[in-house]
Amino acid sequence: MTPILVRTVAWLSGLLLAASAAVAQPLSAKPVNLMVPYPAGGLSDAIARVVEKPLSKAVGQMVIVENVGGVGGAIGAQKVLGAPADGHYLYQGSPNELILSPLALSAVKYKSEDWRLVQMIGAFPIAILARKGLPANNVDELVALARKADAEGRPLTYASVGIGSFYHVLGEHFAQTIGARMTHVPYKGGAPVFQDLGGELVDIAIFVVGTQITGLVEQGRMKVLATLAPAGKVEAPFLKQYPSVNDSKSVRNFAFNTWTGYFVRKDTPEPVVQALHKALGATMADAAVRSQLEQLGGTVPPTMTLAEASREYEGQTARFRTIAKAIKLDAQ
Is the residue at 331 inside a domain? Predict the structure, then answer.
């Protein structure tokens, strides 16, 4: 073989190896950032800390949790949208930040369609919580009390973490469903909601429930009237003693949970999305990850294909847009 031919073969071999590596490793050597749109210390941050190290192992790169709160999750979201669409920024989102915030907050400039769901990683139960002194111990009693209070011109109050938040929308949707006006009391976070609920300064809150909340219930600081599980179903073992709102005589078809998933920019290249999908699938198959998420009060949904994830996100978007329209949710 002549020297020129040797050099040519070596050059072609190098090209083939480089191409093979590019297919096998669509992500570059840069760290992968998990954008958590809330401050450290809350449930969202705890979820990311569970995922961080196993995902790093799955992608073969360092994974860093980044906490950027504000404007209903929009500040963190905008940072991800402003970064290159190369898969090195994953947004940890839910219907609250990516579906409802664009509808409720005029400062949010993105749309749900700007995002692509790569994998849903956790679903968490929701319950109707009440102050301990509220004269209602189940949903039917709550409905009767709410209607009576509305008729007397002193509507019951319900708490949320802000206008346009998931819990605001659920509270307004519940009031509309039972035909009784209720007064919305917005807070800046979950901690003050539970403080005032425990202090009997607000009547109810429709809120995500984990083992920390059931601890407050066991201490007698508040009570659970019902979960928002589908009729006849228990979504979390630690809530099995509580009925579903959908098993009551007064309310039907009011089943909701809150879920968390990882999103990328819609224009992220397909090989990168597939690599991230595979890595997240491996991460969620880890028994330790599943156990830790369950300890936080969640369940790990079955792994979705990318097509299934897209259909689920589109369906959720359509559902919440319909509810937002029905309750006349306007951008503030």
Answer: no
